[in-house]
Design goal:
Blueprint lengths: L1 E5 L4 E5 L30 H8 L5 H15 L9 E4 L4 H12 L4 E6 L6 H12 L3 E5 L3 H15 L4 H17 L4 E4 L21 H7 L29 H7 L2 E4 H4 L4 H10 L24 H12 L3 H11 L11
Parallel strand pairs: 3-4, 4-5, 6-7
Antiparallel strand pairs: 1-2
The structure holds zinc ion.
């Protein structure tokens, strides 16, 4: 048997009998092949470690802080939107939109279309629109997108590379275009801070921060020019605005998951209570029916993740549930 182990921009291949074995977290079922996941001396992974720290967080203080930031950026005379909320056809997007409306915000929801939007994804987008928000959907050139899917798959083993890129660049472009400085993202995977908007000074985003935040597996957008007939003009949706443009609007961002306890399963339940539709069966390669259901290519993405790192989406979900002490369960299908 041959299995692969991938770093950020490399894929290593090992044969059976070699000395490199996968090590699993003592608390969850995550192997140490997951990129950027650190393990402590006690054999517990960084994600479990940071989850256990959540018990000590004063969530009401965080919510107060959150409300202050929203107040600071809210359009005082109602002449513009209060914030940009990047959304897809997923459960977290529905949850984010519901929460922002509960906080009295007037968001502009922005979708960077997935690579191959599923029917249920479309249905959930239509549902977000009906929640009572202004909404815009940006669909990059599909002929170029197909080329980028192929390049992503063959060069970094990720067919969804252009999607992962666009979900970070397109809402930032919208922030500049419509002069709405605050972007409210969902989960902060590092879970360490509230986002640049929380800083009293120097909180304007730079391209450098954005490029680090939206990790692109070592494949840079500029590397694509000249491949398969792709020109710079084809890559506008996948490129960040200039630092000068970001500064002029004062674009900044915040992570909802830092201020409100973030849990995919309860997000799914809240989303469902607000019209979100799940699949009638589990999502391909997963063990639940409520996430990653808005892109038909998800199965390919997850399969290659398994080839590269030796674990799939089911492992991710199992870890989330194990940390919360819950049993594996889907939500009732609708
Ligand atoms: Zn763990």
């Amino acid at each position: 048997m041959i299995f692969c182990y991938g770093g950020a921009d490399k894929i290593y291949f090992f044969k059976e009998g070699c000395e490199r074995y996968m090590r699993y977290c003592e608390k969850c079922v995550m192997p140490d092949t997951k990129p950027d996941l650190k393990f402590g001396e006690d054999g517990v992974c960084g994600a479990c470690e940071s989850f256990s720290k959540r018990q000590a967080i004063d969530w009401s203080a965080r919510e107060r802080e959150f409300r202050e930031i929203l107040e600071r950026y809210r359009s005082k005379d109602g002449s513009n939107w209060d914030c940009i909320v990047p959304v897809s056809g997923g459960k977290d997007s529905t949850y984010q939109t519901v929460r922002m409306l509960q906080f009295g915000m007037n968001p502009l929801c922005v979708t960077a279309t997935t690579c191959d939007l599923s029917d249920v994804g479309r249905k959930n987008i239509e549902n977000i629109k009906s929640l009572g928000v202004d909404y815009m959907e940006f669909s990059p050139n599909k002929a170029i997108r197909r080329k980028l899917n192929r390049i992503g798959l063959t060069q970094v083993g990720d067919i969804s590379w252009p999607e992962h890129c666009g979900i970070f660049t397109i809402p930032v472009r919208a922030a500049v275009q419509y002069k709405v400085p605050l972007i409210v993202w969902g989960e902060n995977s590092q879970n360490e801070y509230g986002g640049p908007a929380a800083a009293a000074e120097n909180n304007v985003l730079t391209r450098r921060w954005l490029e680090e935040f939206g990790g692109l597996l070592g494949l840079r957008v500029t590397d694509l020019i000249g491949l398969d007939g792709i020109e710079g003009k084809h890559l506008i949706p996948y490129s960040y605005p200039s630092d000068e443009d970001l500064r002029q609007t004062g674009v900044t961002g915040i992570f909802l998951g830092y201020y409100l306890p973030w849990d995919g399963y309860s997000n799914a339940l809240i989303a469902q209570a607000n019209g979100f539709t799940t699949l009638s069966t589990t999502v391909e390669g997963s063990v639940v029916n409520y996430e990653n259901l808005d892109n038909y290519q998800t199965g390919i993405h997850d399969y290659f993740k398994y080839l590269k790192f030796g674990f799939g989406r089911a492992t991710d979900i199992a870890c989330l549930h194990l940390r919360r002490g819950a049993s594996l369960a889907g939500t009732p299908s609708k």
